[in-house]
Amino acid sequence: MTRKDRRTPRPFAISRWSLQRKLVLAFWMVSVIPTMIAAELAATTLSQIFDSNVRIWLQESTKIVEDEITETLHDNARIAQLFLRYAKPPTDRNAAKHDKLTADIADSMGIDVVALIRKRDHQVVFSTAADDIVGQISLAHNAVLQTLQVGGVATGAVVSTFQTTLDGIDYQLLIATYLDASFLTSVADVHSLDLRLYLAKANDFAEIFATQRFEDHPTQVPEKIENILRDTRQPTEQFTSRYSGLYRPIFNDSGELVGVIFSGLLRHSSLVGLVNQSNLFILIFLLSSAASLAVGWLVSKRLTMPLRGLSKGVQAVIAGDYRQRVPVIGGDELAELSSTFNHMSERLGELQHLEAQLRRRDRLHALGEVAMGLAHEIRNPLGIIKTATQLLHRRADLPEGDKRHLEYVISEVSRINDLITDFLDFAKPSAPIRSTLLARPLMEELIGFCEPELASHKIDAQIDDQAPGATLYADARQLKQACLNLILNAIDAMPAGGRLTLGIAQDAEHTILRVTDTGQGIEPDMLERIFTPFVTTKASGTGLGLAKVFSIMENHDGHIECSSEIDAGATFSLYIPAKGDDEEDDEDEQKAQP
What is the 8-class DSSP label of residue 267? Predict the structure, then answer.
């Protein structure tokens, strides 16, 4: 036994994909390597720019703290001038403690400690703070940043001392402002920013305040960082897996490191942890790939749209619809292919029409041959029957009833003879003898000829001439016969009266004669067969009238069209050449002459 090789169809096989999907895949595969290179370069550049901006931000945030301390020193100096000018210290210390004016001024200016100390014995003359706090403050000139214990909590203070002499006694005016949680309000709301201030103690630096409190929050300056700050006297960076930070040193007038400002961003709670080169590369690559796929889809759609149109057009042509056309867009090869397809469809339609005409003519020719034989075989007996009947009818002794019967026979024989004549005229039409005619006089003649019949049926007739002076290249007798046939059909379609319009129009090559009625209309299924021989919508008739009109139009190198709606009337349009070939050649020669 031979085993048949059965292959299971693969649902994701590329060979089963549409052309558009294949083009999109090809476009993406071609662009993936350049996209990766561009993504790497862009990620590197953006990462460097972002890191640079982070450094600038950290530097600016520490500079804010440094500027705040400097501004506090300036405020202390201005307030000292105010006190020395307007506030005279009392000689009694007990009175100074109750000096409400001094306390109110200090409180309104945000000053935490105002004290006047006699220099010779270091006696506190008056103070707005407790004695234990004033006792902790160093009066050294360069001790501008100090750490105090306020309520059992280490608190930083910006300290300023000023020398003054009152009534011949030397004093030192002490002004101090605490560096507490309210010191920096402009950056405290940035939740991912960790801003800290460290002040010098005996052997190390203690944290005075911080805007954030994280789990691994360091309370001291690392010794390595402290040594770098002392050596370089410049801000230094520290980037870890959790922090992106910067330390800024604060030196006094003697060059001693008295404080350190730290500003850091916690990576997992800020963009700093997300914006790195790897993440940027992935993001840019994905976005670029999506853009490449989108562009590929648009380009492939632009390329495959004409092909889809051509495919539908080919299927329509295969189904026999030769009127199918596809839009021609642009001037590329696809546009050329679309134009060629349209030309092919047009030629196939012409060939189909020509083939239908040839088949029709072949049928008519065969029908004519049969008709000639039948006419000969039928007319001879009919002639004998008619002659014999007429002879019998002339007998004087024939009863009146028999004479009437013989008259019926003679009438029917004549009708059959006329029918045979019509049939022969249709089957073997005579060649048209064409000449140039004016359309308007022809239509007026037809209306005049049919006027009694139109009046008897209460039909109003009019001419709609949209092409004054239009000409026809036709056989006048045959054209009148065709138009008269259409007018009589229109009269039959309006038994209760109506309106008949004979229209005249023109296109590029034809003069168009239209016969429009307001009658009953024609059923849609009859429109396709109405010009077929022996097909009629009347209760009586041969069905050869419209077929003869169709044949006359074919012999005139023209055609006939019909449009109709039920209860809205019908319009028959005769397309007849406006000029003969000789006249057209003469016009071309006249145009060619200079």
Answer: G
